[in-house]
Amino acid sequence: MRQIWLRVSTVQDESGLTIAYVAVMTDRTRQLATDQAIRLLESQDPLTLLPNRRLFMESLETHLADIQGQPGVSGAVLFLDLDGFQVINDVAGHQVGDQLLREVGNRLSHVAQGNALVARLGGDEFGFLLTTAHLIGDTAEQATKVAMDCLAAVNKRMDLDGSQNVTASVGVTLTSHKDTVVDVIRRADFAVYAAKSAGRNTFRFFDAQSQANLVHRSQLMADLRNAVQLNQFVVWYQPQVTDEGRWVGMEALVRWQHPVHGLIPPATFIPLAEESGVIYQLGRWVLRTACQQLVAWSADPQRELLTVSVNVSGRELQQADYVERVVEILQSTGVNPLWLKLELTESMFVGDIDGIIEKMQALRAQGIGLSVDDFGTGYSSLSYLRRLPIDEIKLDKSFLDGALANPKAAALVKSIISVGLDMGLQVVAEGVETVAERNFLKANGCREFQGYLFGRPGPADQAAPAFTVLTDTSAFRQDTQQPAVQGVSSSTSGQLAQR
Questions:
Q1: Bridge partners, 11 (sequence order)
Q2: What is the pLDDT of residues 150-189, one digit of tens each?
Q3: Pick the CATH number of 47-206 from 3.30.360.10, 3.30.70.270, 3.30.70.1400, 3.50.50.60
Q4: Contact residues for 453 (Cβ-Cβ < 8 A; gap 6+)
Q5: DSSP for 217-276?
């Protein structure tokens, strides 16, 4: 239907008598359509056709104004963030990414069903606003139901250009009569982050402790960026021994000596280092420090055959020039490559397996030994493992726990040892804490061990005296549960969780 505007004017003579009429017709159809489109763009997301961030914020502001001065009256805000959306965008393409967002928007609209305002806030983030007009009964219960319905809706298989599976993390916060828009948005963001930190594909309500934890995490990340230059990291060493009690190697374990929070274990700061990119600088520093220590130890003929194992982050291995950086450290420190062993985790072997194998082969060509750490906990298949140019696998402590009492757990440990030995690999058991565990492992073919039974991690100067102890029979008596190798202080390292 066209929109025609008619404007009529009169023409009068000198005496004021109307002698004519002038009519002007204007077709306003296009202009009105343009104006309507502009108004729509101001409040609607063009991709999903959902309300956009601007309308969501205006609605939230109106809701908070409505409940001002009404204690006990509240609403709820939910933020939903898709997990791994950027990977889908990068791998499948932006066209598939847009299709996925439209489908998610459609599913979330069905979840809302007029009982909540759902909007696309930008990128892969969506928001729900439950106001007093939408709520019947307990606000927290209804918000929980919406969060669970959202997760279920997103989780359903999506047949786009190729099947896509996606999950979401949802943060929930309740509103109160004292809130501002900034307060609510900040809390919802914190709650989403808490859901992602909890493993994703879940929801979390905001709570003050979560906020405190996230603020602490943010501060640690900021401190981490300068920690290498400020010499706050230290490398500790944990012994690896044979079934005869002979020391054959050490694992280099990095610790962060924070000036305020004290000794921080790797499980806390390594994920932060990977997320922030500090891992590249930190990894080079640890490798160089371990190589320098190896050179110092090798000056003693009793220690010249000792190896040192250094953990490698998946982020480091993905660098195009990683091999060149390792070679530069070998050359600058003068370390014998045969003394060095790099420990990789199975999770690295997902994706560009051929590129990873090529780098591993280049490292092996330098004489460096390669080990698969935490074997059995990752994602690699045995067919991949067969292709890897490795020398050693390390049996993760989680498999050993309970193996003495649980026949199924024991069978799994036996199988892993057997697989390693059949492939001609050295098998090192981690986390050995009792003589019984050592005897069980030895009876099933494992000949090298690492764990508290033989020594806790400690600084290099504390580990060095123990090299002279080739055999300590207390480690092989049936009546002791104590660490056998002396020289590594238990008092200074007892607070550390074994890696």
A1: 20
A2: 999 999 888 776 556 789 999 999 998 889 999 999 999 9
A3: 3.30.70.270
A4: 432, 433, 434, 435, 437, 438, 475, 481, 482, 483, 484
A5: HHHHHHHHHHHTTTT-EEEEEEEEEETTS-EEEEEEEEEEEETTTEEE-HHHHHHHHHHH
Domain with CATH 3.20.20.450 in the chain: 224-493
Distance from C-alpha of 276 to C-alpha of 222, rounded to nearest angstrom: 9
**Cα 196 from Cα 173, distance rounded (Å):** 15
Comparing CA positions, the residue from 286, 154, 183, 238 lying closest to residue 452 is 238
Question: Is 495 strand, coil or helix?
Answer: coil
Calpha distance 368→306 (Å, rounded)? 13
411: tokens are 């069978």
Task: Write out the residue limits of the CATH 3.30.70.270 domain(s) in the chain.
Answer: 47-206
SS3 at position 371: strand
Strand order of the sheet with strand 167-174? 117-122, 125-130, 76-83, 167-174, 203-205
> Using one digit for the tens of pLDDT, what is the confidence trace for 36-52?
555 555 788 989 999 99
- Contact by Cβ (8 Å): 179, 65: no
Q: Which residues contact 324 (CB under 8 A, 6 or more apart)?
A: none
Please compute, for residue 192, the number of CA atoms within 13 A of its CA located in the half-sphere on the CB side. 21
In one-letter notation, the amino acid at residue 11 is: V
Do 73 and 67 meet the contact criterion of CB atoms below 8 Å apart? yes
Residues 188 and 78: their CA atoms lie apart, in Å, by: 7
Contacts (Cβ under 8 Å, ≥6 apart) of 39: none
Q: Does the domain spanning 224-493 belong to CATH 3.20.20.450?
A: yes
